[in-house]
Amino acid sequence: MSDVDLNQGLVLSALGITGALFGFATSQFVYYIQNYWRRDRLLLRIVVPLVWGLDLFHLVLYAYTIFQVIVFARSNTASGLVLPWTGNAQILVNACLVAAVQVFYLHRIWGLSRQLILVIVLGIVSAANLGLGITLMAQTLIIVSVAGLPTLSKFDVALSSVTAASDIFITITLVALLLMSRRKGSRNNRLINRLMFYPINTGFLTSLCAILSLIMITTKKGTNFYVFFYYIGTRLYTICMIASLNARESLRNDMADAAGIHSIPAIRTHPQHTTSRLAGLRKYSFFATQPSSRSGSESHSGDAPAVLGAQTAPGGKARGLGEGHSADDLRRVHAFSLLPKS
């Protein structure tokens, strides 16, 4: 098998896998639109469609590039094959997609820590990742032909290294901040343990793909093995981000069951729970959603405020699920969950 056949087989295999992953990301996106988008925070209402749109655009560019390369490769030698403009564009789109997802996680870190220096340092690493992606795209415009791609290996190595480093740093920071929110014997610890699963899962998968891409660049020169892992990692960014947002309802329900709170309608059917008392409960909730504009039985849908994380004390005052936690601890958990505030 020639190197040309091997490279074409690799990019076609990567296209099939990334296409399947995009289908899964689309199902997650549709679920998000149906259940969260209208009542979510403005940042998420912008970032989630943006990430999915970039993912779609990248897949289209990738598929068109492969089509152009395979079709014209039959009438051109590998050394004279011109790199399609879509091959340059997909590098830039990929860099923007990764940057958008990392901004999402930086926003979570800011909500958890309120440490400006920490966010700036991580932001610089993420900006370096974006800058390297733009630089690589600019270099591909200069070389013109496919034969010149091996000369860009040093840029590929730098990009994969910084991508892996930024993912690892962001993951470690999120997990460390969540661990700092734990307290001995607190019922919030169960929620925090589940919340830690998502950054660990995301960081592990995306970092693994970046590391494998880095290994392939250095050990399998002249092949497209690194592209195989690099673009799969891009799809995983989208899937993990949207899936973590879609899991918020499940997290809320699990904590409600543990606290003995089964549903919002059950709370509202008790006469002793007045409007002012519900407002007090909502104040202490770290999973509150935006109040619905509907009233009566219609407000018992998913748009109704979820009073998770609060119980009513004998004196009528509300106390948080994580009794013994400071207000900062509850704020950290609420900030990480990214559910709309009341």
From TrEMBL:
Residue segments, region Disordered: 290-326
Domain of life according to the entry: Eukaryota
Keywords: Membrane, Transmembrane, Transmembrane helix
Lineage, uppermost ranks: Eukaryota, Fungi, Dikarya, Basidiomycota, Agaricomycotina
Record-annotated membrane-spanning stretches: 12-33, 42-67, 87-106, 118-146, 158-179, 200-219, 225-245
Protein name as annotated: DUF6534 domain-containing protein
One Pfam short name: DUF6534
Residue ranges of domain DUF6534 in the record: 164-250
InterPro entries (UniProt xref): DUF6534
